[in-house]
Amino acid sequence: MKSLPNHLTISRFWMTAVMMVCMSVDFPYALIVALGIFIVASITDALDGYLARNFFGCTSFGKLMDPLADKVLVCAAFIGFIELNSLSAWMVVLIIAREFMVTGMRLLMIEKGIVMPAGNWGKVKTTVQMLAICLLFFGLIWPEVKWFPTPGTTSCIPYSFAWWLGLGTALLTAWTGVVYFWQQRHIIWEKESEGS
């Protein structure tokens, strides 16, 4: 854990905690600070991967903890949006369920000596989630802009912008989970048969 990419990965856990405080405590510019922290954390996600691939080298720690840090950051933000009435709870539950299942499979593979890096579908999912989170922050900070998903009870009404944004993000997240399990099915079955 001595390389810079791994330190950047760990920093996302700390930034997630500060972001959640800003989303939960009412003080001037709290949501703007939370948005700023989220953007910085998202940048470190791209930066640590770039540094690891091109300068420091990829490590088993980074392959596991980098996607895990992304999941913690994103799931924390989505949970915060439930409290702020910007998302329906069932959408967030679907997102978090997928993340737990994929993380569980990663841990299972580690026990079998396999470290699985994030795939292309996972990267697309993470990018869409981060863009959706930024838009939801915009709706909280600038509710007067009609093109942003505004908070309140109307955001949970079907066919509103926030509802479609949450639905699309949740369905894409679930779909990438299905793809992830399907792509790894041979590894799971082969390893299980070897151990039997």
Explain what the structure shows:
It catalyses: a CDP-1,2-diacyl-sn-glycerol + sn-glycerol 3-phosphate = a 1,2-diacyl-sn-glycero-3-phospho-(1'-sn-glycero-3'-phosphate) + CMP + H(+). Belongs to the CDP-alcohol phosphatidyltransferase class-I family. Its EC number is 2.7.8.5. Keywords: Lipid biosynthesis, Lipid metabolism, Membrane, Phospholipid biosynthesis, Phospholipid metabolism, Transferase, Transmembrane, Transmembrane helix. It comes from Pontiella sulfatireligans. The chain is mainly α. It has one domain (4-195): Four Helix Bundle (Hemerythrin (Met), subunit A). It has seven helices and no strands. The longest helix has 27 residues, at 30-56. The mean pLDDT is 83.
